[in-house]
């Protein structure tokens, strides 16, 4: 049981590392786009708001997770 918990904790840490890395890369890209005048910060914020409004509710999103990973 402890081994399965440790494996789950490791997987969670790995997922968080990937998310952090992706977020960092997106922030760098956004900074470059704004710096080059390709998009303004306000245009970006408006687009994010639009995408959030168009996205399905979290309850409607189907995440396929391994059965033993679900809590």
Please outline what is shown here:
By secondary structure, the protein is an all-alpha fold. It is built from 2 helices and no strands.
Mean pLDDT: 78
SSE class: mainly alpha
Number of helices: 2
Shape: flat
> What's the oligomerization state?
single chain
Q: Give a quick account of the main beta sheet: strands, pairing sense, barrel closure.
A: none
Report the C-alpha radius of gyration, rounded: 18 Å
Can you offer a commentary on this structure?
With 71 residues, the chain is mainly α. The protein has helices at 2-35, 41-54. The longest helix is centred in the first third of the chain and has 34 residues, at 2-35. The two termini are 14 Å apart.
Key terms:
about 70 residues; mainly alpha; 2 helices; about 0% strand
Topology (SSEs and partners):
Layout: H1 2-35, H2 41-54
